[in-house]
User: What shape does this take?
Amino acid sequence: MGAYIFRRLLLVIPTLFGIMVINFALTQFMPGGPIEQIIAEMEGNGDVFQSISGGHADVDIQSTEIELQGTYRGATGLDPAFIAELEKKFGFDKPPLERFVDMMWNYIQFDFGESWFRKITVVDLVLEKMPVSITLGLWSTLIAYIVSIPLGIRKAVTDGSSFDTWTSGVIIVAYAIPGFLFAILLIVLFASNNCFELPFLKDWFPGLREYNPTCHKLFPLRGLTSDNWDQLSLFGKIKDYLWHITLPVVASTISAFATLTMLTKNSFLDEIKKQYVMTARAKGLSERKVLYGHVFRNAMLIVISGFPALFISVFFGGSLIIETLFSLDGLGRLGYEATLQRDYPVVFGTLFAFSLMGLVVGIITDITYIFIDPRIDFESRG
Assistant: This one.
């Protein structure tokens, strides 16, 4: 097992390098880089970054304009010296190959630099947005696995029954509804002005008083916590946190829940029909022993194989639409805004870190195969 893990770790290096090369090359052909956008704003062709980032991008732009305003010629365009200074400021005075080598050398040392348009390091920026992604990703993944796996097993055991039929109908509907549309439905029903009169919630959730003194909404519309978070007790903070995350977590879980349930069911059905299951039953083993002692570890392999992709996409990728609808500022919005702004330190820094985490999670997933089915031997592979 140790030799296999070592080989996989060695494979991480060229894989990660290939990911960075492809994405860096693609950015060289993308129009409208950071310098072009700054020039467009300063020439009066639109408040580019204000509309994109909500005011976060004005720091470096304004300071650069103040420093070099003596060379700015509003009537005749920007001075070439000013353009050259911008290129030097952003490192575009170097050839692409040299910029890529410098970037990778810094990333190897886990130095991801500073955002071009926000006076904050990439690491601090990611840590600032991480609580939202942890909330959505961690809870969504846990709920999806905790609910979907037992439900999928029950559906496989009772295949063709009324329970299997009506739950399949619910799952198909859940899968067919886009996550953002389901989020809007939740907002309309539980977080809009069509409030529900439930006076007992006033005592259970103190934050409800802030939204409407006479008609209490079931759930808040935005944020992870209430404005009076610091004044709440520990138990009150836990309740307030769970109260805020309910709708966004449900909205982000619905699609993964449907997919994982059907995957679990079909995997168990395939295993149940195999000869070794019939042999185990013929020996007099209980149905529970057959399912969880023999079928489970074989059927769960295909479910676990999809965990790395689910973990990275939900936990780190975030959901841009879900975050936008519920006014959550997480990694999904960070990546989107950084791409629009051409904030390359943020784009490539997060890409490098999350790609590395994804590859490591893939190795951890392979290790879990051993615990589920000890018969698997990765050492025998060439």
